[in-house]
Amino acid sequence: MNVPRVALIGECMIELRHLSPDRLALGYAGDVFNTAAYLARSAAPGALDVQFVTVTGDDPYSAEMRAHWHAHGVGDRYARVRPGGRAGLYLIRTDEHGERTFQHYRSESPARDLFGPDQPAAIDEAIAGHDLVYLSGITLSIMTGPARARLAEVLAETRRRGGLVAYDGNHRPSGWPSPGAAAGAAAAVLAHASIALPSLDDDRIVHGDASARACVERLREAGVPEIVVKLGAEGCVIADRDAMEAVPAVPDVNVVDTTSAGDAFNGAYLAARLAGRDRRAAAEAGTRLAADVIGHPGALLPPLPARRPGP
Hints:
By secondary structure, the chain is α/β, with parallel strands linked by helices. The protein contains ten helices and 14 strands. It has helices at residues 31-42, 60-71, 121-128, 137-141, 145-160, 179-190, 200-207, 212-221, 261-274, 279-293; strands at 5-9, 13-20, 23-29, 49-53, 55-56, 80-81, 89-94, 100-105, 132-136, 164-168, 195-196, 226-230, 236-239, 244-247. It is globular and about 50 Å long. The model has no long low-confidence stretch (mean pLDDT 94).
C-alpha cells in the first residue's frame, strides 16, 4: 500500500522564548512547520511521508534547524539552501493568561525565495504529485506576487492530479500592506482548496466575518468542500456544503502558552482525515492535541522517540 505523501510549504525560524526577563530558550518553529511536526506526530509510525518545502540559509542555525525537523519526523527533500542566507528569527512573550505576542526579524529570510525564479521546475512538479499540499496565510505573506501566481499554478495542478489542498488563513498584520491584500492572496488559494482551516479571529480581520457561520458561508461560496473554523477556547465548527456542527474544546485546560495551538489542531485533524477518520473524529483529535500543546511552553512538544522522516 502506498504511503500518503504530504508537502507543507512555509518557513521555519529560530524561536527565542523568554524564560525570565533576561533569559531565553532557543528552538526552531514556524506556523507551517509546526503543523508538519504535529501531522507527523499524530500519524502512526510510517503511515505518512511528511516533507517541508522551504528555503533555508547555510548558516549553523539553518543546519541545526534541519536536524530539528528530522527529529520531529519531517523531511527536507524539497528544502533548498540559499548560499549566504541566514535563518529568520522571532521572539515570544506570554502574559499571565498564556496569551502570546511575537516580534519577528525575518526581512532577509531565505524562505522569501519560495516559488521565485531560482526555484527549479522539478520542485513544482514534485509538489503537484503529492496527496496533500498544505500552506498558510503567513506562507503567502512572505512571497512576492509572481511567486504566489506560480504557487497557484502548482495548486491547480495538484487538484487536477487528484491531490488535496489544505489552507489555513493564519494572519500576521505586519506581513501585509492591508487586510484587502491578504484577502486577495487568500482568494487565489481558496479557488483550489479542498480543506479550509481558518481561525475566526484571523478571518474577522482579513474578511470581516462576524461569526463562524458567516465564515462557513463565505468559504462555501468560494467552493471549498470541507471547512473547519477554529474558535479557540470555544472549540471549532466543522462544515461541508450541506451541514455544520460545533465541536467543543477540551474543558478545564491549564493554559501555559497558546503558541501553536491552531497549528497543532491542523496537524492532528489532517492526520486523522488522511487515516480515513470522519470530520467529527478528526476535529476531536485536533482539540485534544491543541489542549495538550497549550499546557506546555513554546510552539512544539518534545519530539517522540524514533520519529524519522520518509526517505
